[in-house]
């Protein structure tokens, strides 16, 4: 709770508080033309620090597919992804690393599987947002992986996360 300049009690959501505390981040990856059985992945390796990473993810696609969350992947290659601090005045950076489409040399344990159904309406999108917040282990790699059912699938993976 906070008292504003008019003396009113103001209650902030935890996410709102984390933005103001300069500890809330966002990362996004996308591909406009995934082939049949092709994939889009966002991997996050959490830092080896006392602070724990808490994360929520949304996946959007214009066609059907399957999404998984895996823990403990051994990955290589991949393109670096920048974690954007959601407090745009902040210079605080996320201590972990993020990659797009990293090679999963050794897949970890699948924690969650989600199916995105075919939207069925021209111009509509399939959408899954896992509102369950995951409290991730330190110094561990997690992969959010979308596998397309059909050719020329457009998809995005959007993550919001904070350290505490």
Could you say how many structural domains there are in total?
1
Fraction of residues in helix: under 10%
Main beta sheet: strand number and arrangement? 6 strands, antiparallel
**Shape by Cα distribution:** globular
Number of helices: 1
What is the top-level CATH class? Mainly Beta
Query: What Rg is obtained from the alpha carbons, in whole angstroms?
Result: 17 Å
Query: What is the strand content?
Result: over 45%
What is the residue-averaged pLDDT? 88
**N- to C-terminal separation?**
19 Å
CATH architecture descriptor text: Sandwich
Instruction: List low-confidence stretches.
Output: none
What is the succession of H and E elements? EEHEEEEEEEEEEEEE
Could you explain the architecture of this structure?
This protein is mainly β. The chain has a single domain (25-163), classed as Jelly Rolls (Sandwich), CATH 2.60.120.380. 4% of the residues lie in helices and 56% in strands. The strands form four sheets. Strands 8-10-4-14-6-12 form a six-stranded antiparallel sheet, with no helix packed on it. The two termini are 19 Å apart.
